[in-house]
Write a structure and sequence with these properties.
With 244 residues, the protein is mainly α. Helix content is 59%, strand content 2%. It folds into 2 domains: 2-97 and 219-241, Rossmann fold; 128-210, Orthogonal Bundle (Tyrosyl-Transfer RNA Synthetase), CATH 1.10.240. The two termini are 20 Å apart.
């Protein structure tokens, strides 16, 4: 759907570089790439804004780490509306109760699929044995009791957060059920809960991967539906900014 990239260019013309340079994701990625961050990486949040605004979205489900990117989209929408008249809704964030899952190897940072440490991240398609291994190797501390103290005990608190997220239980209820368990045994409990949660999803992924023609059809139908929604909105944007 080329309208995404075309709108991103227009919105990029309304966005100043210092604002993008302040975004923490850019700073972190640039540091990990030895100061060789690309233009595409710098302007990616503007493309995210285009993805949202192109459909006149009013609410966006995001993780805590993406809140600042959504705030950029909000500011871009306001800037566009001020310049060209009220057009875009200013999108609001929808945050889940589990706002951020931390790395199993470094519970001070978020879990990321791009983490080079394979044991740091649990993937939905991981086998039960892989999930058990990753939780067994999860970094905790030298206190055996299971408690929830994100500042003082980030490792075990991360396990509690994950347990609550996959079971739908409250932190309080998870701690009640974990009473009497040491962290080594608790890691097994959390791993089993994650396995149970992911099992039907993993099975569905496996089934879908065996039917490539169906997947291609889903992608084609989705692109066509997105195009139908995006094209008239983008044409109106072109008219507003003076492209036609």
């Amino acid at each position: 759907v080329p309208e995404h990239a075309e709108l991103a260019w227009i919105l990029g013309c309304l966005t100043n570089v210092p604002r993008l340079l302040r975004l923490p994701q850019w700073k972190a990625k640039r540091a990990s790439q030895n100061n060789e961050g690309t233009v595409g990486l710098l302007t990616y949040p503007v493309l995210q804004a285009a993805d949202i605004l192109l459909y006149k979205s009013t609410h966006v489900p995001v993780g805590e780490d993406q809140v600042l990117h959504l705030e950029l989209a909000q500011d871009i929408a306001k800037h566009f509306n001020k310049k060209y008249g009220e057009f875009f809704p200013v999108p609001k964030a929808i945050l889940s109760t589990t706002k951020k899952i931390k790395s199993l190897r470094d519970p001070t940072v978020k879990m990321s699929k791009s983490d080079p440490q394979k044991l740091a991240t649990v993937n939905i398609a991981d086998s039960p044995d892989e999930i058990v291994l990753k939780f067994r190797k999860a970094v905790t501390d030298f206190t055996s009791e299971v408690t929830y103290d994100p500042a003082g005990r980030p490792g075990v608190s991360n396990l509690v957060s994950i347990h609550a997220a996959v079971t739908g239980l409250s932190i309080k209820e998870v701690l009640r059920q974990a009473a009497g368990l040491d962290t080594a045994h608790y890691k097994t409990v959390v791993a089993e809960s994650v396995i149970q949660k992911f099992a039907p999803i993993r099975n569905e992924i496996k089934k879908l991967q065996e039917d490539k023609s169906h997947l291609i059809k889903v992608l084609e139908d989705g692109a066509e539906k997105a195009k139908e929604l995006a094209a008239p909105i983008y044409q109106e944007i072109r008219r507003l900014v003076g492209f036609q």
